[in-house]
């Protein structure tokens, strides 16, 4: 249970940092960034698995890469669709 909570915290923080770095207006604002971070962290964990440093048994690099890709895709699709938040 503690590992799941830590995974969620890491994914949320990464999602918010990535959204702030790119400055994309993600649909849903901060909650959208959190969901994108969780989705990206999960995808990165499934595809890459064990890579990079760990925090509490969770690998950070796959979560960062996954969140980066998901937020990038959402940001680009949002700009293309001309969505304003």
From TrEMBL:
Belongs to the UPF0410 family. Pfam families: Transgly_assoc. It comes from Virgibacillus indicus. The chain crosses the membrane at residues 29-48, 60-78. It is a multi-pass membrane protein. One of its GO terms (cellular component) is plasma membrane. It is found in: Cell membrane. Its main location: membrane. Keywords: Cell membrane, Membrane, Transmembrane, Transmembrane helix. This is GlsB/YeaQ/YmgE family stress response membrane protein. InterPro entries: Transgly_assoc.
